[in-house]
């Protein structure tokens, strides 16, 4: 516990700050300011801690979080600062899974609730919904004991004509043994999305079993003879891989395939792209042109567009040409997951519902071995393995929700909350890199599943504009991917910088109104019943009418916010419509101010630029 | 002149109309004196397009064999294409459109011919008189008076006949001050901040010249707005070096020695001709669907449009801050005081004054701070982003203002009585309209053209309940506070409603907007019903007792 710590406003140049006390708990960093407002930061969310050079007011400490929150503390005594710094470094770096928050997190559920929670999403059920097994596709037990591929789930669906030797042979010809399996089956077009890793083709190697495997996939589609093979990498990268004995499919060796590169960059490019984006968006006093050129140089939106373009290509191949598609990248767990899941989202409206989206993430990301632990740096490991691949997926979905405001049952807050928990290590779902690892960790016994907790707060994540009839089952969503449709996702990257957001949120207002409408509908029923009753029989005991509270006031919590985020990006409830006491604040014209005050020190604190509201 | 002389081919059949995101339609094209009319021949669901010639910014023609194609680019940024069979017909039509869309004489414009089909409930020409404004002001302060010194437009040709000035300055002094200010635009009241009695004035630059001329009456006039012992701020919308250079041409700025109670701040806002270039570049970038992400972002950046938005908002915030936070009076001017000055004073009022965020209040603001204040609409809006002519006086000054209002609207979506459509409607009518409101460059010209007698006012139409309902914001709840927008680049957005309006399918967005409105409407219905039922129940209860 350290007192008299200052929390600086990230974008203010007027050194506005809050003074309060900093506490370190086993799991969280807690700051309580003088007006008793609390800021909780989970240790697992901390991406980097930095001590800046000593200033006259104390020792500055900057904490960067994986949810893009950046806090800037000033600790009065350097020794305290040093202690906090060291503790945070230790606490934020976990060496083994068992020390992660999920293993100590106790949401007061009993055992059966815990078990039920894990059973909420059932992938076998999901494949049944898609329509497999059927005459062409069957469940294979080849990987039942993770013998063929350690990073795949136990249960895999393959074409009926693909015998075990073909599967084994094909898996030997594929990087990490990730042979072609079914990811999504389109009932009405009878076409499939399949996924795998790159073939070990080098410059000339071929594998008959693998060729048979692809043929089996294309034969499993009675409506179209040819199939697409999408290599999601840029062509150059794929060619370079040949030198290492890997590579891509040679169209001459595989009959009836149409091969296509789609040019999504690798995890390292994406990591540095995000880094650049954050550098730009975190700059104080940013000019419009620096922002736009920074946005351009980071390449971030270009990458998002590439991912979505690939998904559109995939979805169209299935919906328009009824052709099956095999998707791969290098290992088949990053770009492949992005493209397969987004493609399915465009094809099948089920994935645009709340439950469906959970299923989609469980299927294409968790079960097929997207390396969440490595990519999100859950344990102290190789920084080169970190990459915002899943974040890009969420951002692509967000872009779709912007273009089709009525097509999705979930809202932006849902996407942000999932992003939060991918990094929080509070729930077991995203721990580890693959199913095998998760089983070894006994996550289902020792930790809790995120999904029931999200469902318990369904109200917060519902899109009030959602129209289930917007697109009937299995109609293709066709987004416009012209560049100007892609926008900077302010609510993600500046989620905690409230001054940048609209002071009044249409979305929250509509959401509350929509909730209130439901309440009112019930009230009407109740009132009508009462009136009927009164008209019917005369001497009934008077029922006192209850006060209507459409918006219950949020209760202040003293325990760590086990689930809710302590600060929503936008003011909620009734605060939406009011603008609280304003105070002069940020000015991005410090140069002017200083110039000004030099000339005329008597004039005090005229701040140029924009004043902010404190909420 | 007869329009018929200009129309050699009044009608062409089998014309195909192409618009982005709409299927091509075949039909008949007719030219009249003021409209291009396209009507599809389908009987079941006839589609008609009426386009004002004055809305046409530029046209291009192309030929493939005997099939001619005319591409029409409109001032509201829409682009349509007409395929016209027959070389001669096509040439005739193209030349007619060209001639009719570039008529020299104002009196030939459509507003002089337009006869409204609706009943005029309120004459918009007399809806917003300065006298009414002054009456409101008189109820809170008696330090100001109405002056008719400019009755014959003799003191300042670009000012209205009546202006509000400090009470202690007489008309004689005003005449002298007018001689000391560029174009005779002496300082007048723009806004009175009721909360603390501070004011915002506007004028043009003082004509100090190189030898530092001064004018005692000018000093007295603006000092009259200061409380004793307090200081004021002069916000000059030019950078210091430009203001200094202006002295060589007889212009200049208020020098400290002569205005010791005033602190001068130079807050640069781009001059109008630069804005025009920026506008053209932005529209070009938005119209090219083939740009990859990098090119789009760099084009957007190169247009500098959002930079201008940010600068303008910043300047307006500065003026508002001086008044509301510093409790100081403010004088705003640039060179002529007809462009950037008005942008700043009007935006500052949006920030400070809740009344300006209502429909009527905003209309009054546009009348007071733009039309009566002498923004040269006819010059600035003669051409839009597709103009080839490099005239020096065209510029999207008013559009930039509207966009800044939109940006603030985005950040405070419940604080405005009007919606985005209202702003877009004003943009359209400023460039091409059946109403006379935006014709002429100032009140003087409007009086000479006898616009109030000969044309219909936009406000007569807009303020009819049928029309108003389209422009109302269902989320509006009066908010009496000062609203400070954020000007961080992350908080600013491209105004898609104007710039991407014709470039993307908007069906889903419109449907979503409709759904939002429905939810609000339904809420009101439900609430009314609950209240009615409660009353009924209460009555039953009392009956029993």
Structural class of chain A: alpha+beta
Q: Count the strands of chain A?
A: 16
Helix content of chain B: 25-40%
Assign the structural class of chain B, choosing from mainly alpha, mainly beta, alpha/beta, alpha+beta, or little secondary structure: alpha+beta
Shape of chain B: globular
Number of helices of chain B: 19
Uncertain stretches of 5 or more adjacent residues of chain A = 539-615
Overall 3D form of chain A: globular
GO molecular function, one term (chain A): phosphatidylinositol-3,5-bisphosphate phosphatase activity
Protein name (chain A): MTMR6 protein
InterPro entries (chain A): Myotubularin (IPR030564), Myotubularin-like_Pase_dom (IPR010569), PH-GRAM_MTMR6-9 (IPR048994), PH-like_dom_sf (IPR011993), Prot-tyrosine_phosphatase-like (IPR029021), Tyr_Pase_AS (IPR016130), Tyr_Pase_cat (IPR003595)
Pfam families (chain A): Myotub-related (PF06602), PH-GRAM_MTMR6-like (PF21098)
Keywords:
heterodimer, A: 615 residues, alpha+beta, PH-domain like, seven-stranded antiparallel β-sheet, 22 helices, 16 strands, 38% helix, B: 545 residues, 3 domains, five-stranded mixed β-sheet
State the gist of this model.
Chain A: Residues 510-537 form a coiled coil. Chain A: This is MTMR6 protein. The complex is a heterodimer of chains A (615) and B (545). Chain A has 615 residues and is of the alpha+beta class.
Provide an overview of this structure.
The complex is a heterodimer of chains A (615) and B (545). Helices cover 38% and strands 14% of the residues of chain A. Chain A has 615 residues and is of the alpha+beta class. Chain A has two domains: 92 residues, Roll (PH-domain like), CATH 2.30.29.30; 384 residues, no CATH class. The two termini of chain A are 26 Å apart. In chain B, the strands form three sheets. Chain B has a seven-stranded antiparallel β-sheet, covered by helices on one side. Chain B has a five-stranded mixed β-sheet with strand order 10-11-14-12-13, with helices on one face. A two-stranded antiparallel sheet of chain B has the order 8-9. In chain B, a hairpin with a 7-residue loop joins strand 3 and strand 4. Chain B is α+β, with helices and mostly antiparallel strands and 545 residues long. Chain B has three domains: 101 residues, Pleckstrin-homology domain (PH domain)/Phosphotyrosine-binding domain (PTB) (PH-domain like), CATH 2.30.29; 375 residues, no CATH class; 35 residues. At the A-B interface, helix 9, helix 10, helix 21 and strand 16 of A face helix 7, helix 8 and helix 19 of B.
